[in-house]
Amino acid sequence: MPGWHFRPRGIIVDEETFGGVTELEIRQAVRLRYAVSMLTIHQSRNGYVANPAEAAEQLAEVVSPLIRNTDLIEIGPSAATVRVLLVGGELGDLRNIVQRIIAEISHHRFDERHTPVVLSIGGSCFPVTAGSSRELFIQADALAAEARQALDPYSTYRLPDRLDGGP
Fold first, then answer.
1. What is the rounded distance in angstroms from the CA atom of residue 32 to the CA atom of residue 162?
2. Is the pLDDT of residue 11 over 80?
3. In the prediction, which pLDDT does 59 show?
4. Residue 137: is its pLDDT beyond 80?
5. pTM
6. What is the 3-state secondary structure (H, E, C) of the chain?
7. Is the pLDDT at 56 greater than 90, yes or no?
8. Residue 23 and residue 17: Cα distance in Å, rounded?
9. pLDDT class of 146 with cuts at 50, 70, 90
10. pLDDT at 167 over 50
11. I need a surface site. Which of 72, 79, 139, 147 has the fewest CB within 10 A?
12. Which whole-number Å values give the CA distances from 142 to 14, 139, 161, in the listed order?
């Protein structure tokens, strides 16, 4: 009898599938009252990227084992950008997830020059900081762009505050 090994991994999908599943997941989260979070991950400007599409694919492969098999990863079609949809991901959990991704990526070198990979990450959380799937995308992208503008020589991230001003 063949052995079966459970390996939790995020599923890597294309942009269209990711957008559709995000919309459906938000609708379900409204009905069942649970959180859905999103991370936008860019390779920052101070990291060298020879082939952005290849870099995004490699980044997705590193992130995949760090998240649950109910979560999705989108590889952007042209840029070294990856998005992660965290089903049931609470705002309070994002910091730990991001720190786990940054710690793991610090051990990887994706080119022959062994250039360290530097990430800029932004996050958002429905319904705590975003009220729709569109807002989830916009907020995660905006915070990743804000982190990217810092031009730090190491990976950095920005996470939103609660809409209601709570902790």
1. 20
2. yes
3. 86
4. yes
5. 0.86
6. CCCCCCCCCCEEECHHHHHHHHHHHHHHHHHHCCCEEEEEEEECCCCCCCCHHHHHHHHHHHHHHHCCCCCEEEECCCCCEEEEEEECCCHHHHHHHHHHHHHHHCCCECCCCCCECCEEEEEEEECCCCCCHHHHHHHHHHHHHHHHHCCCCCCEEECCCCCCCCC
7. no
8. 10
9. very high
10. no
11. 79
12. 21, 5, 13
Pairing of strands 119-126, 156-158: parallel
Residue 44 predicted with pLDDT over 80: no
Domains and CATH numbers, the chain: 11-158 (3.30.70.270)
Task: Using alpha carbons, list the distances in angstroms from residue 60 to 27, 112, 120.
Answer: 26, 19, 14
* C-alpha closest to that of 39 among 93, 78, 117: 93
pLDDT band of residue 112 (cuts 50, 70, 90) is low
Contact status, residue 143 vs residue 123, Cβ threshold 8 Å: yes
For tokens 């760090």, the residue is 66
- Which residue from 107, 122, 12 is spatially nearest to 67, judged by alpha carbons? 12
CA angle in degrees (0–180, nearest 5) for 55-13-92: 85
Question: Using an 8 Å Cβ cutoff, are 65 and 57 in contact?
Answer: no
